[in-house]
């Protein structure tokens, strides 16, 4: 039985991942902690109401605030009653469009996105390391993006979410630094590219339906192991492995 915490769980990928985890039997996933910045959305509240013994909503108003994240970890520790947290999924994030070009991106916009996408993952991970040490899996999955790949910069040149791209490149480096530092403690840190999924952020012209993408994310979250420590992985969607277009979903390592 595993215990899992997912940030950014109020909507989109985070909410779908929580739903997909709850679809598994309690013998596999018995406790899910869904972190939101404010009161749960109707979709999340419905899941809480239907699975009150397995799903707990945890509110952290500012994920980048280490003191608040630390208090949340203590609250969750009390709920677990001596057990540890097995898996942490840092999914919370945001993006800002700058259609007029990179010079139109303000320093404040850049700092805000970096803080929301990278600073929050760092604070939450730091706060929950003690509880993860007590868990059996000791796994942290950081939601990254193919748009953060410097190797493939030309593929996504069309995207004007400059600060988002920069934050995801930083997320990859953050993942590697944690992977190196906690390797001797048998932790597994991975950066995961969820691909282009049909959410409010991804839009309805995206490649993958939300339910399909959520299941593919869940599969990697659960099956990844120590051999994946420090890697940048992509989801696997049958039929998309050799796609000739911009994106392929083969479950393999992404170029940095």
Automatic annotation (TrEMBL):
Annotated Pfam families: adh_short
GO terms assigned for molecular function: oxidoreductase activity
GO cellular component: cytoplasm
SUPFAM superfamilies, per database record: NAD(P)-binding Rossmann-fold domains
Family: Belongs to the short-chain dehydrogenases/reductases (SDR) family.
Protein name: Uncharacterized protein
UniProt organism field: Zasmidium cellare ATCC 36951
